[in-house]
Amino acid sequence: MTKRVLQGKVVSTKNLKTLVIEVIRKFRHPVLLKVIKRSKKYHAHYEEGTFAVGDNVKIIESAPISKLKKWKVLGDK
Fold it and tell me: pLDDT digit of tens for each residue in the chain (77 aa)?
């Protein structure tokens, strides 16, 4: 199975080696036929790099690193 790659915005950089990324997805409601936005926050692991709140990053699925971290940051800024 292929690993999912998501793109989102950095929401928090307070934890050591962890970023919190908010991913927003849009979909059409099956009954109302309106476009709806939903967001979800993911905890992602990164070794080094300078990230600030508001940066756009890509994350990829990985093996579980901790209780919440199951994603890794792709590349640097």
Answer: 789 999 999 999 999 999 999 999 999 999 999 999 999 999 999 988 789 999 999 999 999 999 999 999 997 66
CB 17 within 8 A of CB 66: no
Q: pTM of this prediction?
A: 0.88
Provide the strand spans (E) within 1-77: 5-12, 18-28, 35-45, 56-61, 69-74
Cα–Cα separations (whole angstroms), residue 27 to 42, 48, 68: 19, 34, 26
